[in-house]
TrEMBL record:
Domain Glutamate/phenylalanine/leucine/valine/L-tryptophan dehydrogenase C-terminal: 188-434
UniProt key word Transferase: no
A single GO molecular function term of this UniProt record: glutamate dehydrogenase (NADP+) activity
Residues of the full protein shown: 208 to 643 of 643
Similarity-based family: Belongs to the Glu/Leu/Phe/Val dehydrogenases family.
Name of the protein described by the UniProt record: glutamate dehydrogenase (NADP(+))
Recorded superkingdom: Eukaryota
Keywords: Oxidoreductase
Species whose genome carries this gene: Riccia sorocarpa
EC number(s) from the headed UniProt entry: 1.4.1.4
Amino acid sequence: IKRDPHEGEFIQAVSEVVHSLEAVLSKNPQFVHILERLLEPERVIIFRVPWTDDKGEMHVNRGFRIQYNQALGPFKGGLRFHPGVNLSVMKFLGLEQTLKSALTSVNLGGAMGGSDFDPKNKTDNEIMRFCQSFMEELYRHIGPNQDIPCGDIGVGAREIGFLFGQYRRLTSQFESMFTCRSLPSGASQLRLEATGYGLVYFAKEILADMEKDLKGLRCAVSGSGKVAIYAVEKLIAFGAIPVSVSDSRGCIIDEDGFDFAKLSHLRDIKNHRKSLREYTKAHPRSKYIDDGKPWGVKCDLAFPCASQNELNHSDAMALVNTGCKIVVEGANMPCTTDALEVFRKSKIVYAPGKAANAGGVVVSGLEMIQYTGRRQWSADEIDSKLQEEMKDIYLKCKKAANEFGIGVGNPESLVHGANIGAFLPVARAMLEQGCV
Ligand code: NDP
């Protein structure tokens, strides 16, 4: 904190982890220095990304790759293209990814990268030129045993395709480390769906412990990107009633709930990069709230799936007033610290993103096994492996919390359990590997 006082998001993420680890550190003082090292990324790469728009005008953006921690396996983590990208955001996401990977059974480390480039309102050719310029530097630092990037906000199938094309061209290696639909081998079934589906499987585990089921429960969802849309799809499949989605311009509330036909309409709107307002034309009982968030809608569960710190103190109060009992984070760190305080006081069960949204890493791990083994699992096989793994992550969080005296009745048990359960394997590996 003294070293980087302006890195708000990073300090917020670190504070949460350190708070959870108090009991661990007092019983295991040898881990204090390990934590100190863990809070410093192994490598920070910052580079210039020049590119030209369709009119021939030159632009320059800043590129990042934070190779956060490799103690458990190759660096692994997303690429984000969004104007809000800066060093603090990259470092917090790198730390979260390191802990997330450690909660899974795949041997991967943590990384994050991206650029303050805004892909909105750019043509496909502009996006392609930007991706090629970005990869011109990034390719030196990545590889299947070194650092494995994947998508995040603003980086979807189109961007991954362009990035992979340039990587292949620069290295002459057809290495399947990016998930890209056009790759004949390597792209796993359900990779795109994995985070959203995994999120819902995680929620199911929480409910099962309360002897409840998703069927008939009302769910408020924010975001309408890769994570949110597949979460909504899985919620519908389980008979839940998802009643909202949102984007950076506003939100849709459909009190009747989305079904598969309505979801297909939402997808169509997003694919054509139109406003969510369009939805109300076909569904007059729904409403669009300009610049609004979905947290005032009556719901049993909330799934924030848009971005960091999207859910603040007053949103948390609104959720409590609607009767919401469980918050499951699809995005990374979507709840502010004072929102979490509201949940704690109101005894709302809260599942942190590093556990609940780990489905993407799980399927990335399965993808790597499929590539090296030159075999493919079917979508059903991947789906059942994903369900098992999300259950294991849930149980790991519960067990770690229990071991340190944080019982099931404590609404924060999952967050403390996730931080402890993730920290211990990383710390042990770092201790074994010496002072590197
Ligand atoms: P996408 O770019 O596909 O979607 C992001 C969605 O959130 C869009 O609907 C976007 O709206 C909206 N959004 C972005 N910023 C804001 C904001 N400040 N306020 C309101 N809405 C906003 O990203 P993903 O779905 O991939 O990622 C969403 C979150 O999930 C991120 O926190 C990411 O780190 C996390 N995550 C993603 C994983 C993945 O596999 N993709 C894995 C684990 C976590 P608009 O369309 O208007 O920009």
